[in-house]
Amino acid sequence: MINKTTLFRLLGIYTMAVLFLPIVINNIPPPINKITGTTMLLGVYWLLLVFAFHPKILFSKFLKIIYISVLVFYIGSLTIWDKIIYSSAISFKWILLDYFGAFLSIVMYLYFIKSRDYKGIAIVSLSGLIFILITSITSIISLNFYPDAVRQLSSGSAGQNDVLYGKMGIAGYTYWTSIVYLFPILVYFIKDKYFKTSQKWIVLLFMIIIFFSLIKSQITTALVLAMFFTIFSFLNRKNLRTSSLILITFTILAMFMLNNYIANFFYYISDITNSELLKLRLFDVGRVFEIQDYSTVSGETYFSQSRLSRISISFENFLMNPLFGGGNSGGHSTWIDKLGVFGIIGLIPWLVIFKQQVKLNLTILDEYFKPFYLLSIISCVLLGILTTTANSTHSGVIIFFVVPGLFFSRYLLQKKS
Length: 417
Prior knowledge:
Low-confidence stretches: none
Mean pLDDT: 86
Distance between the termini: 30 Å
Radius of gyration: 21 Å
């Protein structure tokens, strides 16, 4: 007989598989795949189990903000936002999908924390890492045959190959952007003295593999952020204030004083890259640093002309109506787009969600883990400024569940807990 603890752990592992193990999930034959491979069904399963065994979790203050936001957006979709088309019409389904990743991950995290199943959250989080490793490997292999697959999936131009790519284990765009959050935590494993040397070598190999898979994916933003946050993480110190000072100092130096050295670094990587697209994008990043190209008006690089200029469109729409938004956006930034389309009303829920989760975890995590955790949070915020994927299901589960959940891996891996 499976007890309650085992049941929740198995559901957690299954959730990780649905999100991070496409080569298995996408090859499950019909009709079984109708009840196993749907992301939205995960929410139903978690709702039913949590309601049956821990109903108080569903009325937690951490979830009330999501309920209120869904209600506000639904009323808005019938009134002030009824004419808005933001990737699609603002329907009830669109609203649910917008908050689904945050809802699912917070419900999962609260269950394991409230039930004090710290070993369980460690098992589920580590299973997520194992599945990410497998998918990185299958993607590396498959992208040798279809090098543009990830970009086709992200742009919706894969056509009939969409199914083929999934069956081959090639992950989609939101997967690649979301694994950036893991790099600070992986560095934590390497730097923490309580982990065995053999475990640190395994983590280092894991980092190399997923970093190489990022190169193969040709997602430049994710690749560049992974580099920077890996460097930041190795510079991290146990003291939170010292770590913050180092981060700010390094950022200023990188942008205005060490810019030529960093530019040459990206030029070098660009030269040794096989992908023509990635070669151009990395060279462009180098140019941004070399000429300090941060202008949306007179910019010369792709970064300033395409990314920063789109952000400025969203910001201009926000200024038209700061409270409810101007109804339009540049379409390339999760957080700034929400400001542009929905105004402050659109961004407040996410500010509250992040604040609540960070505040909760800062009372749980130890002093050494906290700086690495906060770097992961910063990487998510920054990624949400540069891409549209920071509120995806992959993103929510990694940043709100896997990242803090890996702190509890000490119950399984450390020499002493």
